[in-house]
Amino acid sequence: MRKIDTKEIADKVYSLALKAGISLTPDCKAALKSAADAETSGAAKFALNTLILNSQTAEAEGLPVCQDTGMAVVLLEIGQEVFLTGELLEDAVNGAVRRAYADGYFRKSVCDPITRQNTGDNTPAVIHTHICAGEQVKITFLPKGFGSENMSATYMLKPSQGVEGIIDAIVQTVKNAGSRPCPPVYVGVGIGGTFDTCAFLAKKALTREVGAHSQRAEIAEIEKTALERINALGIGCQGFHGDTTAIGVSCEWAPTHIAGLPVAVNIQCHCVRYGKAVI
Fold first, then answer.
1. pTM of the entire predicted model
2. d(CA 122, CA 142)
3. Span 45-64, average pLDDT
4. How much of the chain exceeds pLDDT 70, in percent?
5. CA dist 225 to 53, 164, 221, Å?
6. What is the enclosing helix (H) or strand (E) of 153?
C-alpha cells in the first residue's frame, strides 16, 4: 500500500494545465509540419504555416495557443494499491485547475447551462477516474475547446451497419462540421459499450499520439480508411479546400450489447494539447 497526498496530484494537474494551455503536443506539431510540406493548395499551405507560426509564438511567449483555453478534462488512473490522503480528490483537482487558469491568464469558459452565468474560474473540471492495478496514479490533462466539441456526435447504429456504418458515421460527422472546428482536425472515436461509454472512449482516443494506430488490426483499418475518406473531402486547413482535413483518426473500443452498435465521434481542432504525468 502506497500513500499519496492529493496535493501531489493537484500540483501535477496544475503544471500540466499551464503547459497544455500554451503548447501543442510534439506529435501534433510534427503532423502539422508534414501536412504543410505536402499541401498542394496555396491558400491551405499558407493557413497551415500560419497555424505553425502561431503555435511557435505562443510557446515562446508563454501565451495561450488558442483563445479558447478549453474546459478542463482530467483523466485519473488510480492504482488499487494507492491510499489517498489529504483533501478530497475532486476538490484538490478543481483547486489546481482554478490556480492554473488564473496564473496562466487563461480564459474562464465554464458556465451554468441554463442561466449561462460564468463560474469565474473554469471549474468544475470534468474528472474521470479509473481504478487499475498497481500503486501509481496516472494523470492526463486535456483542455477541450468547444468550437470542435460542438461538432461532435453520437450514433446508435444498427449492428447490421457494421464497419461501413462506423466509417460512414465518422466521415459524415467531419463533413457536417466543415470549417467550423478549425481543421485540420484530430478525430477521436468510441466504438461499442453503451451510449455514455462510447462518448468517453471517443474523448480518451484524443489523448493518443497523433498517427499511432490501434493494436487491433480491424480497428486500425477503420482508422486508416476513415482518415483517407475524410481527407478526400477536400475541406482543408481552415476550410481553404486543401489536401489535409484531418491529421489523424484514433479509435477506442469496448464490447457492446448484441442489439446495438454505439459510435461516438469527438472532434478536436488542430490544437492538440494535453499533458500526462505519473506519480
1. 0.95
2. 13
3. 97
4. 100
5. 30, 10, 6
6. strand 153-157
Q: What is the pLDDT of residue 30?
A: 97
Q: Round to whole Å and give the CA distance between 275 and 140.
A: 6
Mean residue pLDDT of the chain comes to 97
Give the DSSP letter of residue 82: E
Alpha helices in the chain (DSSP H): 6-22, 26-38, 42-61, 89-103, 146-149, 162-177, 195-205, 217-231
> In the prediction, which pLDDT does 124 show?
98
Residue in 52, 25, 47, 24 with CA at minimum distance from that of residue 244: 47
pLDDT digits (tens, 9 = 90+) for 128-146: 999 999 999 999 999 999 9
pLDDT band (50, 70, 90) for residue 215: very high
Q: Which residues contact 16 (CB under 8 A, 6 or more apart)?
A: 139, 141, 275, 276, 277
What's 211-268 look like in SS3? Answer: CCCCCCHHHHHHHHHHHHHHHCCCCCHHHCCCCCCEEEEEEEEEEECCCCEEEEEEEE
CB-based contacts of 192, cutoff 8 Å, min separation 6: 198, 201, 253, 254, 255, 256, 261, 262
Question: Torsion angle of alpha carbons 1, 128, 181, 275, nearest 10°?
Answer: -20
Band (pLDDT 50/70/90 cuts) for residue 173 is very high
- Rounded to the nearest 10°, the torsion over CA 218, 220, 223, 226 is -50
Which residues contact residue 30 at a Cβ distance below 8 angstroms, ignoring those fewer than 6 apart?
210
The residue assigned the cell 464490447 is 255
